[in-house]
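Chain A, query sequence.
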Amino acid sequence: MTAKTTLTVDQALQEAATHHQAERWAEAEWFYRAILQARPDHADANHLLGLIAYRTGRLEFAAVLIRKAISASPGMAAFHSNLGTVLHEHGKPSEAVLSYRRALVIAPDYPEALGNLGNALKDLGRQNEAVTCYGRALVLNSNFAEALSNLGNPLCDQGRLDDAAACCRRALVLKPAFSQAHYNLGNVLRGQGRADQAIASYQRALILKVDYAEAFANLGIALRDEGRESEAAIRCQQAVVLKADYPEAYCNLGIFWTEMGRLAKARRALECAVTLAPRRASAYRNLAQSKRFTAGDRFLAAMEELARDMAALDMGDQAELHFALGKAYEDLGRREQSFQHFLAGNACKRRLIAYDEAATLGVGERTRAVFTPALMAGKSGLGEPSEVPVFIFGMPRSGTSLVEQILASHRQVFGAGERPEFGRLAVGLGRAGGAGFPEAVDSLSAAALRRLGGDYLAAVRPLAPAAARITDKMPANFRFAGLIHLALPKARLIHCRRDPVDTCLSCFSKLFEGDLPWAYDLGEMGRYYRAYERLMAHWRTVLPPGVMLEVDYEELVADLEGQARRLVAHCGLDWDESCLAFHQTDRTVRTASATQVRRPIYNTSVGRWRPLTEQLWPLLNALGLP
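Chain A, predicted structure.
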């Protein structure tokens, strides 16, 4: 012992434990260090000092100390389990798995080690194994709130959102003040599209744990989902203040700033993200979308270095990195190299997707069969008569963002972006147990159609109560054009068209945020495009004249003013010169075109596919082109 005390080792250990339990870390650490000065191989002192180092953010020191404890007493399962926790926190989940497994060899019925092993396996993408571990932990301790809450995470990743929510809620019954369970429930609710409820869960987590950086970051994402972008950015900034080495929060900030048009701030945030996590491929991809690469770019060099270890990345990260490299080489004019990375990235993404092509294309055929001229005439004029909604749709990458940006520059128009509401209402037609979309449309009464239109209007009207028009540019709403007209007979419809090969190649160069399972294989994409064309041809025959305006991207970039005047007139508005300066309009754009719409009109994307004719033969064949 030191000269400052005459306590025995056991007495010093007892004093340290008292301070430790009271979370007086400095006092406890002094006693542990005193013990180790007298007994450097004291297993408990090394272990407990290691836990203090972990709690105070000194992860490497914590690992060194706990390894000393294990050397002195290798048969202690808790030592191995806690080393796993330190390694996991230090970003080494594979090493953490080994430590947890060593703990379980010693103590097979150790629920905490099983729960922590599940956490590490989940972060490694091994969701099924994680679920098994949490299940075993709960067999041993059915009231293990932490395991219940964490079980929600892999269930959420597997798409089992209702089961995940049930686990989190059961954890909160057992432990109402459990901040992490509120946080996990927020993640599940956000996955279910219940952003408002997710916000409330994150806020409850923050009441219980005011320095919860992860809750601030995900609260930001949920606020963004609700269209509250400025608040979202503030919350993510709070996250990085609390946790300066938090790459995910910087990445989210970069995405928010990109969508808000603050491109310089976005690049700085994303550069911080990749500097903090040089192996996080998603940060590189988001950075690539926010900038234009030039020769000698240090971030391109970093991506190329990471690509040399591509096999060590999981499939999702491989896809992210390939898309980032594809964009960088495209900026540099290295088209062949760029396309090869897009080809590889799409192949990786496709392996992660379950896509029922027959079912997807079959919906289009069934829609054409349901929406006959007789049905459209028989239900004409029955819906909600508001003139406020303007629906802009077409294939992704066909010019929908540009059209909305032009209209949103008008003083009487609010651009709402891609709204999911109408699609959800349409899909929800069959929830009462009857037929779903499209078959349910045949039996909709006048009251049901008016209610459908009213429910949509109730969802979007609060976004801009004073606007004469509110645009909704969800591209996939082309599937519901007939139903939109029946539910909202005075709504304006705008169909955006573009050269089919340019459209598909542009889709092929993007890793989409939403659910577009057809977009990652050239043949599947071509067949989907053909089905889209057949459905649009049908809408032309059954929609009344004047309801749907069709705008060709190529004509729009060749004659901005002429086409912009057509768009404004179709919306029933007087001309506004601001529509020609659309790139100066300060608004959030949450699509893959967020950077393009900040630029004046350009035509460099027209005919982009022609130098790649030979490589695109699966697409050309599926499109029926020579």
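The radius of gyration is 28 Å. Residues 522-542 form the longest helix (21 residues).
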